[in-house]
Amino acid sequence: MALELKMNRRTFLKATGVAGAATVGVISFDQPVIKALAQGMEAVREEKWVSSVCIQCPAGCGTKVRVVNGKAVKIEGNPDHPYSNGKLCPKGYAGLQLLYDVDRVKSPLKRTNPNKGQNEDPKFMEVSWDEALNDIAARLNKIRNEGKSHTVAFLSGRNQGRAGSVWGTFTTLYGTPNNIGHSSICADASKKARLCIDGTDDYCAYDWENCNYVLNFGGATLEAWRPTNLMLQKWAHMRRGRPVRAKQVMIDTRFSTTAIKADEWLPVKPGTDGALALGIAHVILTEGLWDRSFVGDFKVKGKKFNHGETVAKEDFEETWTYGLIDWWNNVLKDFGANKASDITGIPGERITRIAKEFATTKPAIAAGERGAGAHTNGTYNHMAIHALNALVGNMFAVGGVMYQMGVPYASISLKDADYMDDVAKKVDKDFKAHTLARIDEAKSDEWPIASNVYQNVPDHHAKGDPYKLGMMFTYYTNPLFSMPNPQRAREAFKDVFIVETSSYLSETALYADYILPDAYYLERRQDMAVYASTGYPVTGFRAQVIQPIYNNRDSVDVIIDLGKRMGGKMGEYFTKLGNHENMLREISKGFEKTPGDNGVNGFDSWAEKGAWYKKPYLYRLSNGKFYEWDGTGYNKEMKKKEEVKKEVKDGKEVETKVITDPVKDKLLKTKSGKFEFRSSKLEGFTDKQKEILKSELKSPELFAYPHYEEPQFAGKDEGFPLHMSSPKMITHAEGRGANVQWLQERFGIVVGRGWNNWVELNPDTAEELGIKNGDEVWVESPIGKIKVMAVINPGNPPWMVVFPFEHGHWNYGRYAKGLGANPNEIMANLSAVISAQSCTNATMVKVYPA
Amino acid sequence: MVRYGMVIDLDRCVGCAACAVACKAENSVTSSTPEDYKKRRLMEWNRMVTVFKGKYPNVSASIMPLICNHCEHPPCVKVCPVDATYKREDGLVLQRYERCIGCKYCMVACPYQQRFFNFYEQEEKDYHNPDVPKRISGIVEKCTFCRHRIDKAVAEGKKIGSPDGVEPACTQACPARTRTFGDLDDPDSEVSKLLRSRRNYQLRPDLGTEPQVYYLD
Amino acid sequence: MEYTKIEGRSVGFYGIIGILVAFMIAGLYEFIQGMIQGHESFGTSNIVPWGLPITSVIFFIGASAGALMLSSLTYVFGKEEYKPVSRVSIFLAILLIIGALTTILGELGRPDRFLNLFLYGPENLTSMFAVNSFLYTGYIILSSVYLWTTFREDLLKTTKLLGALAAALAIFVHAGTGAIFGFIVAKELWFSPLLPILFIVAALTSGVALLILILTVTFKLIGYKMDEKLVVGLGKYLTAFLLLQLFLVFIENIVRTYGGMGGGEMSKFLFSGPYSLVFWGIQIFMGTVIPILILSSRKTMLKVQIASLLAVIGVFAERFSLVIPGQSVPSQQVVGRTMMGLYGEPAIYSISGAEVAIILGVVGAIGLAYIIGLRFMKLLPSQR
Ligand SMILES: Nc1nc2c(c(=O)[nH]1)N[C@H]1C(S)=C(S)[C@@H](COP(=O)(O)OP(=O)(O)OC[C@H]3O[C@@H](n4cnc5c(=O)[nH]c(N)nc54)[C@H](O)[C@@H]3O)O[C@H]1N2
Ligand SMILES: Nc1nc2c(c(=O)[nH]1)N[C@H]1C(S)=C(S)[C@@H](COP(=O)(O)OP(=O)(O)OC[C@H]3O[C@@H](n4cnc5c(=O)[nH]c(N)nc54)[C@H](O)[C@@H]3O)O[C@H]1N2
Ligand code: SF4
Ligand code: SF4
Ligand code: SF4
Ligand code: SF4
Ligand code: SF4
Ligand SMILES: [Mo]
Question: Beta strand A634-637 with A625-629: parallel, antiparallel or unpaired?
Fold first, then answer.
């Protein structure tokens, strides 16, 4: 036998291309190749690598999946995707365990128990796709015929690529304004802050590659934020991958991974990031460290910003900014480092030093995310933070902040508008005329620019104000778990007919009347234009790695199918649309005109390579001037142009003055075309809107400025002494990772805990409360109390209770169910003004031994 | 001679545990259940630990990934009564699963707690890597430096070692490029260069095991 | 001196056999379960891979070595007063070491590969385990021949020689067992040159004490009147061994604690951790101090018996306090820094039913073999 083995090895290796035998050292029988040979089996192995895109978090990293004999056996980063560069964060590698999860929903399910509740068994019954979709279509048509199409809501989370567009079309053609994303429980504060002051309603893209100093206000670079994987890569690169080491300053309320690894950690008091940013801005101005080429300067050389002294507007000439002097006079002049220190708890000298470093170590970036944003003052905090970027002139500069360019997809030839029937048109008209509200009241006078107010849907439905929901679709979101105080949703949604698309038995699925199980991400095709980061456009292609294992179907195809079954104009539209693949083929025609840097020029090459991207970023600020890429360099200055256009109208020659302002059109899309320290967006609100919004502010007179708005905390005045924050761990895949063994066994890396969550306490606080490491404790807020394990984290400040998100599932499969506790259950439902950002960090609690 | 080793640059490491998950996937290491976890029966060829010093506000911490050190003088090899654990000529400390009697002597002998016992028969999973053997109950296992990848590369005549050669899965997976794998005997290898360029240390050098995994701060 | 077999017809005899068989069945059941399902139902973990069975193994080996050394009092050193118990001591020594090996078998992850020890053991003689498997085998063979010679009046000289050899081997065997632990640099509690010596002393303590217990009970049951002087004499040896043992335990711990190795975590854990009751309460107080006190007063048969019982428990506790806490505290990875969370916390081993059953099974088997031996071999002195 052994002899045979030896003789055959060479030929065997050649014939099958499968090596791996122990050619060095000892040959042992545990080597599968040898074993396979010995057993004479597995001689042919079909092996391939398929491109896909990860969806454990929104980043959208490209992956390559190893498929052996029809089974996906390894996920790696796609080297040809600029976010992955061949790497992934831990969640990316763990996708396999979701794909092959034992508790997946394996076929459409219909509820047979009409009663809904946490402890109600839905008594699901397997049904065919036909049966389910026909029934749902019939119900939808019935609601529509009763004139209540607007009572159908569509709640979504990760509706990437065509999922977003097909749901959008569906709701438009059906006739409901309630296409509600989860963005308000996610991170809208930073987006809306940006919209208010630089005109872009999106997260920033950053040139980390060239940045030398990072001032991070509660964006957990190494644990969450976006795109996590790329951030991890860039962090290491900024440290050790280039001659100059960048400095990382992490502003966080807890001793997080990022705080541990950062060069400096500023343990700020919760909700006070805005004050810190203003303090820094004050130092930058009073020390004269602002970027003159971007911001401008005093007309009289040598004039200065002096603490407490107003400046006359006409003394200062602004270049690319607007409202600086108003901002200084109204907000900043008294907001010195000492005042900031009183509020934030960071010593004044330290603030001054950081401010100086930030302004002089160029290029520097001020950034942040939910840490600063998920507070009642979150929108203003982010305005103040983002304002720092303007002060040091890094908007669109090398090593600075950009906006993310869109992908030049070809548009789908079918136009929604052509297929809207009378019902759809009426709903659209009424909504635009404000006579029909959305269920969450987004776009109403209370929330003029909020995209969604997802977290308020249950309350509005419960009150029937503006109306009651009849039916709800949920796609990639779990309102019964992930929103603050989800008990509200649990109560309110008992009488809503719910169609859930998850392939996992989430909490929401437990309330579903139908589950139309989506194909898992490795089983379906999808496009994924990345979230902001590189600036230049990138879009991934999620190819079908394997066929659906069970009777699951891609939700996009299911919606198209449902649309077809709806009949009427809608049916016509969706019949013409055909299927998801057609859509992808159609949009990818855009790449024929603009092939990607990796040669992707159409559907097939896109699917094969898994990504299309095109460098470089097209715009750049340099010495106070904006330039556009002309194909060879940043040579085309973006100047305001006035042209006189001559036209012949009604036989007469008319002269019209046309002003083109490329900076305003493309980069700083504000009313002034500048970076606004005084927001014309906010000032442009109607009086009624302003009145409502100002009534919610402690400093209504500063409404239009980046300013420090005193944060509100639920429970603060009711004797709850400790601040609770509810961050994400690197191993946390939104609400979708609690069933992944690989992630759960090492869930808490810093505290060394797995398969559970916990509350972290400072050692002194714990001692005072009589709590030891590992004890069960009650965490109580005005909303309620919950039992969870206490963990002592010596690094956290004494006032903090850190309660990571992920656990406390009462469904979600065998591995997730019944572990830990869900912080949301004791979280008050507070929303930040303007952005409607839900406030994950604004509840106060007390903790005591259980 | 070839002598493989690894350098882990903690200044790059972001404590993300991507390496740990990638190792699990690559080597089909049995996943735990909450029950296993409570009983401390985790199979972690590659694990993350955090060490703290001081407390708020004067606090520092270090997050480090730990794997088998493929010791130059491996106590685990010394104690194995059936020579199931052995040190290969190229420096890899390996395990003959089919020979191990499950005495667990190597487990108590390894100062780094890098050996793991199969308390039960490994469940077959669709996602298991067909290149690594299934583990039966009662045997001990540990990090192999991804010997199946190394051996395959040798057989195919490929280059081995960072940055552009074949690497172990954890090394390849690391988004921060924290890990460098290669031949410590080759002065031109990336590992050797790194070790020369900065101060480095091994875990518990006082024990005389001579780990072949080096850390940089 | 005349020897005799036992009758073995009484109800009590069959009753005892019944109980022992029940033990064996329980043990066998768990053993087979372990073969099929693995060690899922054990109390061990990846931090504490060695549990109660290993504790028992070293206890059995110790007792065996002690018993064998005791037999040399008569056969090597010619102390005739101990002759009534010497032959049966050898027999017990053999049973105990076989019991120890059986326990190892029950504790192996792959008992089906037990033979690998002999196939591949010679390839790695740096393994104290491998070395010991040969020592044990040699020890069993030697002791068996030694026992056989005691039946032959004509081989007195050989007996003396073999007795000396066997006693020496017993010392090696148990020192070797100590070395299994003492050579482990990874474990603070174990890594010590004194450990093999402590093992020998503990062997003597447990060997003498266990013999006193087994033999007095056996003699009582068969109605043989035991000479109180003999028991008191053995009691004297016991006192000496106990004192020596206490001294060694003291030295070991004082050095470790004073030295403050690893920040003194290990000592702290042993002295005040979850197993401190076993250490202070059972091992030191109940198992060492009390018997010494009892024995330091005028010795009577009963007192020696009680002291022996306590000493046996004490030695078992001593083995336990070595094996289990020795593994519980996770090894430090970076000197002077403790790891957060699970990785820094000691692992708590809880005794499982499966492991107890396996040990009981072995005890049952030893007991049964002992009774069968008494029934079919002339091991006990006949009535005068
Ligand atoms: N691993 C992982 N990464 C993810 C996701 C995921 O689920 N898992 N989800 C993605 C999504 S959807 C989002 S929206 C982003 C969110 O990304 P982040 O905003 O970075 O994530 P969070 O954990 O919500 O909050 C960040 C930090 O804010 C801190 N913090 C709390 N209160 C304050 C405060 O008052 N001030 C300051 N300065 N800090 C405070 C918290 O301690 C926490 O460390 O992450 C994305 N990336
Ligand atoms: N306490 C606390 N709460 C938070 C946060 C926090 O940091 N702390 N973070 C907030 C943030 S930033 C966000 S973005 C939200 C996220 O909250 P949600 O938008 O609710 O997202 P998830 O909780 O991930 O729920 C996603 C749902 O998608 C389903 N799903 C999984 N795979 C598929 C699939 O292939 N197809 C379909 N159709 N469905 C699928 C799952 O069953 C799950 O129910 O949570 C917010 N809530
Ligand atoms: S960053 Fe997000 S998308 Fe990228 S690998 Fe991690 S979980 Fe997946
Ligand atoms: S993957 Fe790299 S950066 Fe992440 S923990 Fe492992 S070694 Fe550190
Ligand atoms: S780290 Fe442990 S398992 Fe690895 S070679 Fe060293 S002693 Fe052996
Ligand atoms: S458990 Fe296996 S590898 Fe470890 S020492 Fe015993 S036989 Fe050797
Ligand atoms: S070298 Fe391979 S086996 Fe070892 S830890 Fe890394 S991935 Fe795991
Ligand atoms: Mo989010």
Answer: antiparallel
3-state secondary structure of C199: helix
Q: Which of C42, C116, C342 sits opposite B82 (nearest CB)?
A: C116
Same domain, A389 and A448: no
Which domains occur in chain B, in start order? 4-216 (3.30.70.20)
Average of pLDDT values for C163-176?
91
Residue C333 has pLDDT above 70, yes or no: yes
Vertex A516: Cα angle to A515 and A522 (nearest 5): 120
Q: What does the pLDDT look like over A33-46, one tens digit per residue?
A: 545 544 544 457 89
- What pLDDT band is residue A3 in, cutting at 50, 70 and 90? very low
pLDDT beyond 80 at B35: yes
Do A514 and A652 fall into the same domain?
no
What is the number of the ligand 2 atom nearest to the C-alpha of A370?
12
CA distances (Å), A442 to each of A176, A427, A468, A481, B49, in order?
13, 15, 16, 22, 45
Rounded to 5°, angle at Cα B30 from B28 and B33? 145
Ligand 2 geometric centre to CA of B100 (Å): 45
The answer as to whether A611 is a domain residue is no
When pLDDT is cut at 50, 70 and 90, the band that residue C334 belongs to is confident
Summarised one tens digit per residue, pLDDT across range A424-435 is 999 999 999 999
Q: Are residues A568 and A462 in the same domain?
A: yes
pLDDT of residue A638: 96
Domain assignment of residue A159, yes or no: yes
Interstrand relation of B58-67 and B46-55 (parallel, antiparallel or unpaired)? antiparallel
Q: How many domains does chain C have?
A: 1
Q: Which chains touch B (3 or more CB pairs under 8 A)?
A: A, C
Tell me: do A358 and A265 sit in the same domain: yes
Q: Which of A74, A745, A756 is the closest to B25 by Cβ?
A: A74
Whether residue A240 sits in one domain with residue A135: no
Residue A123 domain-assigned (yes or no) = yes
The predicted-structure confidence for C32-44, as pLDDT tens digits, reads as follows: 999 999 999 999 9
Looking at the structure, tell me whether residues A390 and A372 fall in a common domain.
Answer: yes
Give the tens place of pLDDT for each residue, A292-337: 999 999 999 889 999 999 999 999 999 999 999 999 999 999 999 9
How many domains is chain A partitioned into structurally? 5
Domain range for C276: 3-333+342-381
Averaged pLDDT for residues A595-601: 97
Q: C120 at the B interface (CB within 8 A)? A: yes
For chain C, the average pLDDT equals 91
Tell me the shortest Cα–Cα distance from C173 to chain B, in angstroms: 16
The reply to whether A232 touches chain B by the CB within 8 Å rule is yes
Q: Do A249 and A284 lie in a common domain?
A: yes
What's the pLDDT at A305?
A: 97
**Is residue A490 in a domain?**
yes
How many CA atoms lie less than 13 Å away from A373 in the CB half-sphere?
30
Range of the domain at A678: 204-403+674-702
Lowest mean pLDDT among A243-257, A382-396, A644-658, B76-90: A644-658
CB proximity list for C264: less than 8 A, separation 6 or greater: C257
User: A478 C-alpha vs ligand 2 centroid, how far in Å?
Assistant: 5
**What confidence category does residue C11 fall into, taking pLDDT thresholds of 50, 70 and 90?**
confident
**HSE-up (13 A, CA, CB side) for residue A125:** 8
pLDDT above 80 (res A133): yes
**Token representation of residue A614:** 């095109």
- B108 Cβ neighbours under 8 A, 6+ residues apart: C49, C50, C184, C186, C187, C327
CATH code at position C357:
1.20.1630.10
**Do A740 and A843 fall into the same domain?**
yes
CATH of residue A71's domain is 2.20.25.90
Residue given tokens 């749902």 in the structure block: A136
